[in-house]
Each structure stands twice: as C-alpha cells, then as structure tokens.
C-alpha cells in the first residue's frame, strides 16, 4: 500500500539490516527492511552485496522483494523451511521524507545505514539506492 506525496518527516519508523546466508546456494546477501508508513507491513530490499552507498559509492542496485509481515523486523536464526541463517546486523530508526510507488526518500540514523537516501524504481523489482549527499 503506497501513500503518495508524504512531505513530513516521520521519525518513528524502524528498520533492520539482516545478513542472509542462503544454504542452498552457499551465498550471502543482505536485506534492508523498513517499517511501512501504515505500520502494517515491512518494506524489503535485497542488497546483493553488503554495499550501502556512502561518500565513495553513490548508488547501488537493490531488489525490491514482496512486502513482509511485521515480525520480520526481528527475524533471526535458522529458517525452518530452507535452513537459511539470518543475522541482525543493525536495528535503527529512520524517517520518510517522501514516499510513492516509484520513489522513496528516507533518512537513516544508524551506524551501518546512515544518512539520506533516495530509492528510485527502475522496473518491477529493480531499484537504485542513491546516497543524497548533503
């Protein structure tokens, strides 16, 4: 559920950065999960590598995955259905600046995920996570 044209900062949102070890593929990727504006679901992006844009790296391709239930913000340990291992690398606060179907403008207040970012939709699942330098 998208809300168009949110212009006021909403600082009371939580996010979690997960490390996801896929047992079947013997690979690691990272999931950035953000509490939605409605607080009814979690917005989820898969980061193929642990690359958060910063001053040296201005943008990263991320994959938008289906919305998740609220309890995925605290998900950790082995998944029963796949044997995958999930670790929480960081839990923090963020605020939405703007939010639509094709763009999410958000500020993160963490240590690993820190700063102002814009997520721009490229196609159905592909988005760019762009560091908005101050």
Number of helices: 0
Share of helix among residues?
under 10%
Q: Could you tell me the number of beta strands?
A: 9
Structural class computed from helices and strand pairing: mainly beta
Question: Mind describing the biggest β-sheet?
Answer: 8 strands, antiparallel, barrel
Rg computed from alpha carbons, rounded to a whole number of angstroms:
14 Å
Order of strands across the main sheet: 1-2-3-4-9-8-7-6
Q: How would you describe the oligomerization state of the chains in this entry?
A: single chain
Unreliable spans are 1-7
C-alpha end-to-end distance: 30 Å
What is the H/E order? EEEEEEEEE
* Mean pLDDT across all amino acids: 83
How large is the share of residues in beta strands?
Answer: over 45%
Which shape, going by the Cα principal axes?
globular
Write up this protein.
This protein has a domain of 86 residues. Helices cover 0% and strands 57% of the residues. The protein is mainly beta and 134 residues long. The N terminus is likely disordered.
């Amino acid at each position: 559920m998208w809300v168009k044209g949110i212009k006021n900062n909403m600082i009371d949102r939580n996010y979690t950065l997960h490390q996801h070890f896929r047992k079947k593929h013997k690979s690691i990727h990272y999931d950035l999960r953000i509490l939605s504006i409605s607080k009814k679901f979690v917005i989820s992006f898969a980061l193929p590598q642990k690359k958060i844009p910063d001053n040296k790296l201005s943008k990263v391709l991320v994959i938008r995955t289906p919305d998740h239930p609220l309890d995925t913000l605290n998900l950790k340990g082995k998944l029963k259905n796949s044997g995958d291992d999930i670790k929480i690398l960081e839990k923090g606060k963020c605020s939405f600046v703007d939010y639509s179907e094709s763009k999410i403008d958000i500020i993160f207040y963490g240590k690993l995920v820190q700063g102002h970012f814009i997520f721009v939709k490229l196609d159905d699942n592909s988005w760019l996570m762009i560091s908005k330098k101050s």
